[in-house]
Amino acid sequence: MDPKIFHCASPAATQGDASEIAGTKLRGFPMNGLSEKVRNNNKARQVRLRIFLLENGIESRELARKRGLSPGAMGDVLSGRRPKREHIEWLIAQGIPGDLLPEPAVPQKRGPKPRTDHPAL
Known about the structure:
The protein has 121 residues and is mainly alpha-helical. It has helices at 11-14, 33-39, 43-55, 60-67, 71-79, 85-93, and strands at residues 5-8, 19-21, 24-28.
């Protein structure tokens, strides 16, 4: 496998030949519906965030290192795939405007489903 080839779920990348983006070839592959919906959610916010980071010389790899996350995990936070509240608050404290960041995820209650009491028949 060519190390410069990355896979992408973009519908544009799945049509015709592989497209060139920033010198890197993209080839599409199928993804489940939910993952694709999350990935394509609010592209305008993500573009504005990337522009802000570029204009201010902030690299997501450096943010990941400072936060103790892998670069991939930081990418997931910034894209909205894993927007934990503590990570979003930390990014705001680093000077990134909150309106450019995804809404923090509401923590889910873990554990077994509650039992419902049914009257005896």
